[in-house]
Amino acid sequence: MTEMLSYDFMQRAFLAGIIIAILASISGTFVVLKRYSLIGETLAHSSLLGVAVGLIAGYNPLWAAVVFAVVSAWIIEYLRSAFSLYSDAVLSILLSGSLAAAVIIVSLGGAFNNSLFSYLFGSILSVTYEDVVTIAIFGTLALGTLLFFSKELYFIAYDEEVAKVSGIKVKFLNFLLVSVVAIIIALSIRVVGSLLIGALMVIPTVSALQFRVGFLKSVVISLSIALFSVILGMTLSFHFSLPSGATIVLCVLGIFILSLIINNRK
Fold first, then answer.
1. Which of 71, 84, 198, 239 is most deeply packed, by most CB within 10 A?
2. 136-150 as b/e, with b when 16 or more CB fall inside 10 Å?
């Protein structure tokens, strides 16, 4: 561990990975409870579309990804609430459409280079200090917003209709939640990739829920699983020259399987 952290790029990678683990696991709790698990993959593909547009148009890919992810999140929530469409159907439509558009734009513009590849599969070892600072600042704002409205968001996830009757601004908070999740995902794909961020957001929470210990304890367990998986995955990636993002996700998946085995014995 000492040898690994003696490299500057590994220090940056660990910082970025830990921040992403915190953001993904906590936001993922609300996402999973709302039966919105597929939103991670959907917004990740929307972010990838933003990256493709940014690369071709000469804009900063990260900010293009944020804009496209947030707009997609608003479209998802609008279609779900205004047209009473099933959440999974809306997410599947946006996911397919975003990926198809990204592929067409990339093929027409010839932008499928290392930059886009890093956003697709993640490139945590090439994260700069500027990336870490950006993720930390906007991640803190996003996380602070979630925690500030955590009680209301939990109430909405538990029973949206009762929350409306209770006077909670359900529509506003739903748009707020998907916007925050979109920002977190757009910031994260540079680290773990658009194909993997959904797993890091959902699997730790699903693993924690297997223990049936209540909301707050589930959040803590989910956070612990995500942090442990990032640290273990980064360590294995360094020593065995494995893709870091995929290794982290496999570690999370291993813990999920373990949680199923443990709780099946109770």
1. 198
2. eebbeebbebbeebb
